[in-house]
TrEMBL record:
PANTHER family on file: LEUCINE-RICH REPEAT NEURONAL PROTEIN 2, SLIT RELATED LEUCINE-RICH REPEAT NEURONAL PROTEIN
UniProt GO cellular component terms: extracellular matrix; extracellular space
The protein's name in its UniProt record: Leucine-rich repeat neuronal protein 2
Signal sequence interval, chain numbering: 1-20
Sorted UniProt keywords: Disulfide bond, Immunoglobulin domain, Leucine-rich repeat, Repeat, Signal
Source organism: Chanos chanos (Milkfish)
Organism lineage string: Eukaryota, Metazoa, Chordata, Craniata, Vertebrata
Domain Ig-like: 426-515
Region Disordered: start-end pairs: 688-721
Amino acid sequence: MKNISMFLLQIQFLLGVASSLVIHSMPWRVPCPHQCVCQIKPWYSPQSVYKEAPTVDCNDLLLTKLPASLPPETQTLRLQSNLISSLDQSELQGLVNLTELDLSQNSFSSTRHLRITDLPALLSLHMEENQLRHLPDAAFSGLSGLQELYLNHNRLRSISPGAFKGLDKLLRLHLNSNRLVVIDRRWFHALPQLEVLMIGGNPVDSIQDLNFKPLGSLRSLVLAGMGLREISERALEGLFNLESISFYDNRLTKVPKEALQKLPGLKFLDLNKNPIQLVQRGDFKDMLHLKELGLNNMDELVAIEHSAIDNLPELTKLEITNNPRLSYIHPQAFQRLSSMESLMLNSNALSALHRQTVRSLPNLQEISLHTNPIRCDCLIRWVGADNDKPVRFIEPQSTFCSEPPELKARRVKEVSFREMADSCLPLIAPSMFPSYIQVKHGENIALHCRALAEPEPSIYWVIPKGMRLSPSISYGRYRVLTEGTLEISGVTPEEAGFYTCVAQNLVGADTRSLTLKVEGAGRAYKASMQKSEDNLEVRDISERYALLSWQAGRNVPAAHLSWLANGSLEDHHRHSTRILAGTQGFNLTRLQPGTHYKVCLHMGPNETSCIHLRTKEAPVVTSSPDLTPAVLLAVSALLLLLAARTCQSSASLSWKDQMMEFEKPHTTILSDEAKGFMVPPPYLKQVCQPSPSKFSSEESGKEISYPHLGQYGKEPPKEVC
Ligand SMILES: *[C@@H]1O[C@H](CO)[C@@H](O)[C@H](O)[C@H]1NC(C)=O
Ligand SMILES: *[C@@H]1O[C@H](CO)[C@@H](O)[C@H](O)[C@H]1NC(C)=O
Ligand SMILES: *[C@@H]1O[C@H](CO)[C@@H](O)[C@H](O)[C@H]1NC(C)=O
Ligand SMILES: *[C@@H]1O[C@H](CO)[C@@H](O)[C@H](O)[C@H]1NC(C)=O
């Protein structure tokens, strides 16, 4: 509950309460009731006026009624933690200056047992932690001067519309932690001066339009822990003076941006602990007085999008921490934040923070990035550069690189600029989406996929039918949004299967896959998943290359292909390459003429299929020296992408035609009857293999994995196509 207490501090700050001042009590020599303590104590009025108040303290005495003969000068009467269940005006007779009465933690079950008819000097009444169930009309009508009323932690289920009648001086009302299921606007008509309303911790799941309209003086509203799912556009209308609002620990799945636009004076906003997945463009926009924003402890949050936080000229502190899945902050997520000094991003799943993000904050003084899986490559390289405007790192001692392996456990600040590459591979964080999800027939699904890299990657999805869907494409129930989200509307068993997101830039690609199960689709789904993948075949062979293809009934996770020449019995002559998801063919090049090879396709841990082949004899053998076994490898260009099964059966394109199709990059064909269309590999060039000369490890014969598929680290591969 740290957040709540922080919030209370802010409220106190707003109300100007100097709570830290310590002033000692002074003796008060009066006849004091038995067991009670009578002292002059410091006291602050609800409006922060300091007083030295004659105080009678009878806390924790198992009293069932008020002590007799209270000193008439008493201003503060404390009866906390007793067993009092009723109180009569006559018991307070003569206490003309009584300003605070604390009856918290007693046994009141009804305000009817609080028979106070006239106590106009009373400013503060504590009734928290009793057993009140209902507030009738005019429940506190004898307390016309009351400024603070604490009714939190009772069992209030209902409050009559006129319950607060007569409390027109009330400034602060605590109704939190009760059993209210609705918030009734009529309660507030009697409270024109109310500044603070705490009503969280009640099982209220929605707020009606104009719910707080009568509270034009309200400065702070706490709606924490309520089960709110959405806040309608007009819910907060009329709160012209509101400075702070908390939605801590609700069930909001989106930032309630339209409602927040109705709060012109907002300074503090707490949305922590809500199941928000994305902070989207314009979610926080033009909030001209916002000073602090918290987006913490969100288990679902995966990404902060382009222009998500825009034009908040007074924002000084942005805290986005403890979000276990947050792996992506768009380089231009923050716009026009001219006062921002402090950016807290610790304890997320961020692999990097783009230098553009940092450069977009002209006044940034400090940044906190520790406890993130930082990838020390080109994206975080700015940290080690000579920055014209240095930014202070909070806890630099515990801000470590977690990748690449050779920099692991080094402190980010201590890795020099030169040690980090200047371009880097896309990385789709494992936290982006789970590897398996099960949904009900008819549900709408959104799968978010984002990746950071330099240069900026493009993203596409490969769906179970084998088709590749790029952003801004709709197909059947599918839609891919520009940011990389795949939406499936009204999912049916047809959509069950294997999905892969591919993020790609000039350096390489990363993929991440998920299996979607649609409830009630058990059989169809199983049948398709069990379809054998083991039909590896040779489509063409010559002296130096062999063109392979295989059928993947469903799109498979990144597989790899290995090959070994006869005679090179030792395993270290084995060559291997990873295969992009969705690929169904590969051109093995630089083979030796007249040689046997064993070629195996490995899909997943247990699924391997192998074939033997023999290259054609060279017609005239001019034994060229560069055809040593070590140079065998080097493959070039792959190629057949994703023959959807429907495609194979349609047989409208010969295999040759298809290959030609592949050679036209960047042409995604999506005809209306998009069945069986062929998609070219996204960037034919990029699936080329790195030049063997770059990888001396290979010369020495080790199996290598090429870095072009989510592997990390090495220099950008030189392509041989
Ligand atoms: C109540 O307060 C007033 C003003 O401070 C004071 O003059 C008066 O003596 C007080 N009455 C009692 C009974 O203490
Ligand atoms: C290579 O291996 C195949 C299959 O094991 C075998 O039939 C063939 O005789 C071998 N060839 C040579 C040249 O060793
Ligand atoms: C396979 O690679 C070889 C050698 O680079 C090339 O000559 C051949 O045309 C390629 N085949 C296809 C179908 O791309
Ligand atoms: C692979 O085989 C092992 C041992 O036979 C088995 O324990 C494991 O579950 C299999 N994995 C998959 C993904 O089928």
